[in-house]
Amino acid sequence: MPHATPTRTPELHITGIRSHYVRVPMRFPLGTSAATVTEAPLLLVDLETREGVVGRSYLFCYRDSGAKAIALILQEAAELIRGQAVRPVEIAAFLARRYALLGVTGTARMALAALDIAAWDALAVAADMPLARFLGGGAGDIKAYNSDGLGLMSPGKAAEEAVRLLEHGFRGVKLRLGNADASLDRDVAVAVRQAVGPDVALMVDYNQALTVSETLARARPLEDLNIYWIEEPIRHADYRGYAHLRTKLPCPVQIGENFDGPEGVHDALSAGAADMVMLDAARIGGVTGWMRGAAIAAAHGMEVSSHLFPEISVHLLAATPGAHWLEYVSWADAILQEPMVIERGFATPPQRPGLGLQWCPKGLARYRVA
Questions:
Q1: How far apart are CA 338 and CA 18, in angstroms?
Q2: How far is Cα 23 from Cα 1, in angstroms, rounded to an integer?
Q3: Which residues, other chains included, contact 274 with Cβ-Cβ below 8 Å and sequence gap of 6+?
Q4: What are the pLDDT digits (tens) for 99-133?
Q5: Could you say which DSSP state residue 9 is in?
Q6: Do 302 and 270 contact (CB within 8 A), yes or no?
Q7: Average pLDDT over the chain, rounded to whole?
Q8: Is the pTM of this model over 0.90?
Q9: How far is CA 63 from CA 37, 203, 349, 354, in A?
Q10: Max alpha carbon distance in the chain (Å)?
Q11: Reduced to 3 states, what is the DSSP secondary structure of residue 352?
């Protein structure tokens, strides 16, 4: 659970929420088994307080409709807590009750998570502390893998892109597979492994494209490539299927980006469905949900990696027992005053107060969606 608010932190009171919807071009178009994405739809959130402190967060919204729905729920939730003190754990419980009949899942979960993250950011800013330290974590390096590209593509293009992704000293990259032609999956993976060499961690993500039997058939030709983990090959909530795959696959099974709240961590690990987990700050329930989910993972002796939102996740991993890998993407760089810096393949929580997020006015003006 998050640590108690330090006594020297002034109490803040919520006056409202402002959000900005932007679509930012991706440096590397991302083709997956589900879709090809060329722009990152981001919803930027400002939580305003009576005391003048602003807490910030942002979401990757997948689609225009997602951004619009999340923004509406955010405004409604902000009205429900207007005037209340910024106490994220209490607010999370209050809003979960208010949205119980709608269901705290999907867009509702993401909206409340964005509010929760911004609330924790505001408290850390008021305390003049980086969020990582405010949560009781340190300022050490977190190893990062580059997930900016390597979507579905030809072997030659994948090999070329993989080398480009190793800039800044990354020692790990994520490759999306799940081509209709299974032999193409093997050809692409071989080309990437040859391009990056034997010492780079090569993660493979199927984006839920396969069945259990297809996963087993496609994994066998990859056995000699030293795959670091296989991520979500089947439907994300098929924990029985994942438990079976763990006994058959030659490499670890990674799941978790679609855990719907910390309860999902409990259910998956109780079913023996994963060798390691990755938490998504939006789907797990913001900072409050992350800390609960991380505690459950720690109780199972499980390593925890992050999914997206590297600027936020680096703080959360720094306060997480068993922190493993940070998933790096550069999607927010264009709208940040100070984008995340990767050095020698590691990320470090910035020492600015809170999350350290400041929106870039030029980026907002250029990429804002009317």
A1: 21
A2: 34
A3: 242, 246, 253, 254, 255, 256, 268, 302
A4: 999 999 999 999 999 999 999 999 999 999 999 99
A5: S
A6: no
A7: 96
A8: yes
A9: 10, 25, 29, 28
A10: 60
A11: coil
